[in-house]
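Action item from last meeting closed. Structure (394 res):
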């Protein structure tokens, strides 16, 4: 239900009437129950039928305590992302690329109100002084919003849905993310306690795959997660989740991902996991992988698996680690990169698996071991090295 649809044939005055009721309920702080909506309508000198009152109550409930016209999209189990770029331009991703959603907002002010209310629910500020926000909602949904004039024309709102459970490898195989023969190889990777990174671009399913792989970790092992925004929810009985925290309005209380990695090392992790390596925490993760913390993992943004060493080099250099030291730790601590990409139809899949090796100059590079194939992984020249890492493979 969108706009003033709950008033159906109320005519041109329907939107104004709905706005008057909205303001009255907002001022009172009352929940928009059918009885309160009916009372607010009567206060406006308007009597409507039961169906219209119920429709108006649901519309107002969605806007004041829900996500308005986005609610049915977020309730769809296939939807991973909802993107609002204008009141009449809403997009969703159901795993096959972005598609236009048949919903809209009444106007730009409605998009702004929703973004500000969601930010407030997350305990964050969003206004002209702070025109953007990156936060996690109580249900785990990741939200990002930018207000005009920084966002030209309309508030831009991005919502990334975190599902209550992780997918199994079998489900990812059925969905086409993992090739038919991929599950045994990935299981062997986890069982052998090989340290790995899942790489890929935005929206390629890195977090989804990592959560599935963590679900394969032995039940007697302790997984400690360090995340900027808590998105990983592996199906495992012993998971400790740490989440970074921004500074408050006074500039105090900041907890960085690097802080979390250092704390995680003191929590007896059998598997140390960094949800997304994108800053100086890369140095701490590599140091951990070189000091007895086998089987560690994380995700990293990269266009290809071959780009991962350069990406980590840039992060390490920014954190004060020189190139030679970074490559030394990288070569000793990390073994495998599992890279995700989208095909031409927008479907997510494991495009390639690389192993890491040092060249004669001591720099680390990746070597292709497996490449996506519709009937199964195609084996590349790094396969023998990967097979030795996972104990024989298949």
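Sequence:
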């Amino acid at each position: 239900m969108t706009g003033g649809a709950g008033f159906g044939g109320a005519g041109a005055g329907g939107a104004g009437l709905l706005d008057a009721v909205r303001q009255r309920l907002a001022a009172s702080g009352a929940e928009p129950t059918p009885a309160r909506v009916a009372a607010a309508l009567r206060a406006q000198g308007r009597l409507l039928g039961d169906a219209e009152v119920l429709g108006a109550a649901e519309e107002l409930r969605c806007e004041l305590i829900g996500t308005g016209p986005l609610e049915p999209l977020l309730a769809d189990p296939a939807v991973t992302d909802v993107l609002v770029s204008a009141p009449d331009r809403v997009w969703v991703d159901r795993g096959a690329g972005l598609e236009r959603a048949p919903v809209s907002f009444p106007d730009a002010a409605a998009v702004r109100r929703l973004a500000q209310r969601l930010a407030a629910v997350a305990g964050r500020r969003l206004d002209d002084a702070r025109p953007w926000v990156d936060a996690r909602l109580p249900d785990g949904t990741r939200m990002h919003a930018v207000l005009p004039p920084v966002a030209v024309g309309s508030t831009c709102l991005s919502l990334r849905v975190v599902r209550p459970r992780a997918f199994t490898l079998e489900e990812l195989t059925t969905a086409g993310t993992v090739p038919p023969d991929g599950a045994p190889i990935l299981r062997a990777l986890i069982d052998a306690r090989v340290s790995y990174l899942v790489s890929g671009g935005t929206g390629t399913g890195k977090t989804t795959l990592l959560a599935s792989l963590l679900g394969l970790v032995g039940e007697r092992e302790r997984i400690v997660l360090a995340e900027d925004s808590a998105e990983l929810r592996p199906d495992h009985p012993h998971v400790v989740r740490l989440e970074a925290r921004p500074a408050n309005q006074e500039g105090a209380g900041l907890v960085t991902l690097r802080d979390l990695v250092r704390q995680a090392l003191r929590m007896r992790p059998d598997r140390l996991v960094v949800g997304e390596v994108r800053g100086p925490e890369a140095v701490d993760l590599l140091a951990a992988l070189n000091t007895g913390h086998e089987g560690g993992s994380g995700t990293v943004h990269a266009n290809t698996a071959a780009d991962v060493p350069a990406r980590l080099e840039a992060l390490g250099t920014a954190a004060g680690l020189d190139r030679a030291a970074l490559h030394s730790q990288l070569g000793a601590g990390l073994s495998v990169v599992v890279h995700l990409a989208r095909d031409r139809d927008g479907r997510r899949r494991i495009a390639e698996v690389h192993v890491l090796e040092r060249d004669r100059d001591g720099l680390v590079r990746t070597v292709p071991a497996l490449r996506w194939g519709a009937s199964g992984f195609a084996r590349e020249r790094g396969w023998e090295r990967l097979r030795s890492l996972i104990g024989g493979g298949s």
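Note appended to the action item: The longest strand covers residues 348-358.
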